[in-house]
Design goal:
Elements (H helix, E strand, L loop, with lengths): L2 H13 L11 H11 L4 H14 L3 H6 L2 H8 L6 H16 L8 H5 L6 H12 L8 H10 L9 H14 L5 H14 L18 H4 L16 E12 L4 E7 L7 E3 L2 E3 L3 H9 L4 E14 L2 E12 L7 H9 L6 E4 L10 H17 L1
Parallel strand pairs: 1-6
Antiparallel strand pairs: 1-2, 1-4, 2-3, 2-7, 5-6
Helix pairs in contact: 1-11, 2-3, 2-8, 8-11, 9-11, 13-14
The protein binds iron/sulfur cluster.
The site of iron/sulfur cluster has 14 residues, from helix 9 and helix 12.
């Protein structure tokens, strides 16, 4: 075993955090915790993971889980698309593989929603496969070990790091090695104020030796922020106290459930169509909402279309043919709608609507 791996594994044996999915190797738990941990802190993940596997203890339970329960179990973790992908993957395993988990990195890549990183974590931890896991933490550790202050984030830079980590992985305990690298990045070789005096790889670290930790890795180039102006359409059926939500199938909020969204540029045309429907009363809420998603900076208004009498012809059939919003509508009581909305943006929109109602009551 190379010296780096030996030192790292000894350190890991003594210092790793006792996380619930580390108690024994379980493919299902490794998969779920890995997907949960992407973009969410462990402090949030740990209690949610325990609750998730208590309610959905096997891949069969996950495959059979309905959208509402899945959303409840995922609430607080963010990026709900990850939960949908888990559910899709579970269905594939149950239906196509007869409930048997794939047994290698390559096989895991065939599972819908499973990318190279997730596949590498599962394959190395559960099947002792020598495949490198490279996430942001590991890029930082390797950049510092090799004193890389440029060209880390390009695809060639990433594949150089992948190659380096692959060379470091020992034949024995590849899964523990990958976990040790992640643990080192999360707890010792931190983004700011790394704890170099406690680091098992200090002697091997070129950035430490050259006193250039601050610039390794270089800052990630920022994607240009795109401003987006939207109208959220709240179709309010006052007689039944229900609002319309849809499965959005396109745009940057595709595969989410929420209110129909209309680009500001199309709002005049949409209003014209809606105003032609006699049974609708149309008005804008006075407050705006704003929300950021990755590199999108969204600002918007809420357009309420309130049904004032029983519709002879529904808004879906007329309005939707004119400006191509997703259908069908699902009419949901306002008392439970919060649990059906999959994004924080929709929750903000609904909050504005509730505030407005409280004022006019
Ligand atoms: Fe990171 Fe410091 Fe260890 Fe180098 S010595 S790997 S900078 S914690």
């Amino acid at each position: 075993m190379n010296q780096c791996a030996e030192k790292l594994l000894t350190w890991y044996d003594h210092h790793h955090r006792p996380l619930p999915w580390r108690q024994e190797i379980n493919i299902y738990h490794t998969w779920v915790c890995e997907v949960m941990s992407q973009q969410t802190t462990l402090a949030v993940v740990v209690p949610k993971f325990s609750e998730f596997v208590k309610h959905l203890p096997t891949v069969y339970h996950l495959a059979a889980c309905d959208e509402e329960k899945l959303r409840q179990l995922w609430s607080g973790l963010g990026y709900y698309a990850r939960a949908r992908n888990l559910n899709k993957g579970a269905n594939y395993i149950v239906e196509q593989l007869d409930g048997h988990f794939p047994q290698s990195y390559r096989e895991w890549l065939q599972i819908p929603g499973c990318g190279p990183y997730t596949a590498s974590v599962i394959a190395s931890i559960c099947f002792n496969e020598k495949v490198a896991c490279v996430d942001g933490n590991i890029v930082r550790v390797v950049s510092r070990l090799l004193a890389l202050s440029e060209d880390v984030w390009s695809s060639s830079g990433q594949s150089a790091i992948q190659t380096h980590v692959t060379q470091m992985i020992p034949d024995e305990r590849p899964g523990d090695f990958n976990q040790a690298m992640m643990e080192l990045g999360a707890t010792v070789c931190r983004k700011s104020k790394p704890l170099c005096l406690l680091c098992p790889l200090q002697e091997q670290c070129l950035a430490f030796a050259r006193n250039c930790i601050e610039i390794c890795p270089p800052k990630k180039p920022r994607r240009e922020v795109v401003d987006v102006e939207l109208f959220a359409l709240l179709v309010w059926r006052k007689a039944t106290g229900t609002l319309a939500i849809v499965n959005r199938t396109k745009g940057f909020l595709s595969n989410t459930v929420g209110f129909p969204l209309i680009p500001a540029i199309e709002i005049s045309q949409a209003k014209e169509v809606l105003q032609s429907l006699q049974h609708l009363q149309l008005f804008e809420l006075p407050s705006k909402f704003s929300h950021n998603i990755t590199h999108h900076r969204i600002s918007g208004k809420v357009l309420v279309a309130q049904e004032v009498e029983n519709p002879g012809i529904t808004i879906e059939t007329i309005a939707w043919q004119n400006f191509g919003l997703p259908q069908p509508f699902n009419w949901v009581s306002s008392s439970v709608i919060a649990s059906k909305l999959s994004t924080a943006l929709d929750n903000k929109v609904f909050k504005l609507f509730q505030n407005y109602q409280d004022k006019v009551r």
